[in-house]
Structures are given as C-alpha cells and as structure tokens.
Amino acid sequence: MIRMAPVLGRIALVLAIPLVALASGTACARKATAPKTVLTWQDEFDGPAGQLPDPSRWAFDVGTGWGNAQLEYDTVRPENVSLDGSGHLSITARHEDWLGQDYTSGRISTRGKFEQSGGRFEARMRMPSGQGMWPAFWLLGNDIATAPWPACGEVDIMEYRGQEPLIVHGSLHGPGYSGGSALTRAYSAPAPLDSAFHVYAVDWSASRITWELDGFVYSTITPANVPTGDAWVFNHSFFIVLDLAVGGNFVGSPSSSTPFPQALLVDYVRVYRSS
After folding, report:
1. From 115, 122, 159, 212, active-site residue
2. Domain coordinates in residue numbering, the chain
3. Does the annotation count 159 as an active-site position?
4. CB of 178 within 8 A of CB of 194?
5. Beta-carbon count within 10 A of 66 CB
6. Angle at 154 between CA 153 and CA 156, to 5 degrees
7. Which pLDDT score, from 0 to 100, does residue 28 have?
C-alpha cells in the first residue's frame, strides 16, 4: 500500500497473484521455520490509557489525502492515537468534522528514530471492520527524500479492507512495479481478522522477502520476480509505518452501516536481526 505524502506515499493496489487460502495442508502455505535471531527494537505499548505513543520511538504524520483520496485527517490527538491502558496501541478512526474532513484518524512512523535493513518485522494486531476501513503495517525506504517513491522501495507487511474481513494483503513496491503493478498477494484466513489478534510478519534477507500470518508463510518474493530491467531496491534501511485510513481508492468510502469509532489495536511491534 502506498500512501503518498509530499515525501511519504501510498497508492492503491491491484492483485497480481491469485488469492490463496490460509489452511494447514494447502500447497501455498507452510509453517515458518524460525531462524536464530536477536531482538533489535520493540514497543509493547505498556502505559496508562490516553497516553501518546513513546516519542522516542514514534513520530506523527499529520495531514489528509496522502495522494490516494483518503477521507480522514490524521492528527496528533490521543483521541486518535494513544495507549488503551491494557497493553495496546489504539489507532482510532472517528466520524467527526476536522479541518474540512469528515473523519479523523492517525498515522505514525519510526522515521528518524529506528530504521533497519533486513531481518524480521512483526506485529500482533486486531483489525477494524466495515466498508471503507484501511489499516496497514508497512515499511518505507529511509532514502525517500533523495529517492522518491517508488525508487525508495516499500514493503506492505499487512493491508486490509474492512469490507473483506477474511483477507490480508502483502506487497512490494519498487521502480517499475508499484501501485497497480505491485508484486502482491492476497491471503484468506479461516476466521474474520477483526474478531481476534493475529501476528503479521515479514522475514527479509538479501535474496528474498517472505510474508506470514500467524506463522504460516503465504508469499515469497525474490529478485527473480522483479520485472526484467527493473531494480530490486530492498538492500538498505527502511522505517516502520502504522496507520488506519478511512476511504481511499483501495477500499472506497464508508457506508451508512460502517460503525464509528473504529480502532486498529496493536499489541506489540517487534523487530529482529539474524544472530
């Protein structure tokens, strides 16, 4: 998912690889084999209800649209991004007038605070629900200021349409394979992803990136999958982005039945490197 800002982005995806089912025994899924790793960064979101996320770890992206017709205004208010007092971060979308927009929500990143090349990035999260909800957990290349998107690279660890509660999307964007031409796969879970917490992860090495849902690998992309003549740009450091969009080209507008407020709940984010 790319959400475009003056220097950060997001553009809607089109599926490039057929949908596959999440079930043990399917040909497309396999249990991940955990390599020996060391924890390099984490946030467990412990703290009192209403507290903003740790400013030593996270920065806010404030604004609207992001080049993708999103309908929310992303704020720095605890009403939109704060701890819930039960060990979670809540990114909350609200139906309210704010600076010319009909909705508010939040978007945070580790830009300038934590970046890493390769390793394992994972988060345990519970999805929101309803038409027009677009949560995402993703990575952007730290050279975006000098190599504008998509040359900087983007790894979408998790994208989700609220109107499709069984399906998770994982994608790569780079020069020549971005937006509707991204290298992407959708994966179908056996139960709605808005009904419980699940672990969304990528394992990233110099020669491949794999996507997992609850420990099952559902997609692997290597430099061989990149279109001929285009570059594999996943060989430098990336930073983390978490957000909950309302509307946009990927999901459409909320309907009259979409409930508000809605929250993307994040239990933890952890990053590892091979030992």
Report:
1. 159
2. 20-32+119-234+244-258
3. yes
4. no
5. 23
6. 160
7. 47
Specify the CATH architecture of the domain 20-32+119-234+244-258: Sandwich (2.60)
CB atoms inside a 10 Å sphere around CB 205: 14
For the chain, residues with pLDDT lower than 70 are 1-36
Give pLDDT tens digits for 68-84: 899 999 999 999 999 99
Sheet containing strand 154-159, edge to edge, reads 20-21, 183-188, 167-173, 154-159, 133-141, 238-246, 107-109, 59-60
User: Which residue among 44, 154, 164, 212 is the active-site one?
Assistant: 154
pLDDT given at position 9: 39
| pLDDT reported for residue 27 | 35
Give the pLDDT confidence score for residue 67 in this predicted structure: 80
How is residue 62 written in tokens? 């404030």
CA distance 16 to 1: 13
Residue 96 is a catalytic residue: no
Confidence (pTM): 0.90
d(CA 189, CA 62): 33
Give the Cα separation of 193 and 45 in Å (integer): 21
